[in-house]
Design brief:
This protein is of the alpha+beta class. It has three helices and three strands, in the order βααββα.
C-alpha cells in the first residue's frame, strides 16, 4: 500500500515552499489525489515525478571526458 502524504509532508519531501506546491497542484504539474476535498500525495508517485525531472549532463555519463 502506498503512503499518502499531506501538503506539508510533500513540501518537506520535495523541499519546496507552500506557494510552489499550490502552483504545481493548481496547474496539475504534479501527481496528487483529491479525497473528500483534501489534497494528498503518493510518496511513490512524487519520487517517480522527481526522478523524471532530473537533467543529465551533456556528453553522456563519462565525466572524465570533461576533464
Amino acid at each position: 500500500m502506498t503512503k499518502l502524504l499531506s501538503v506539508e509532508e510533500a513540501m518537506e519531501l520535495l523541499q519546496i515552499s507552500k506557494p510552489t506546491m499550490y502552483r504545481l497542484t493548481s496547474k496539475k504539474k504534479i501527481p496528487f489525489y483529491k479525497i473528500g476535498g483534501v489534497v494528498r500525495f503518493s510518496e511513490a508517485h512524487l519520487m517517480a515525478w522527481l526522478e523524471s525531472k532530473g537533467v543529465q549532463p551533456e556528453g553522456g555519463d563519462d565525466v572524465r571526458k570533461a576533464m
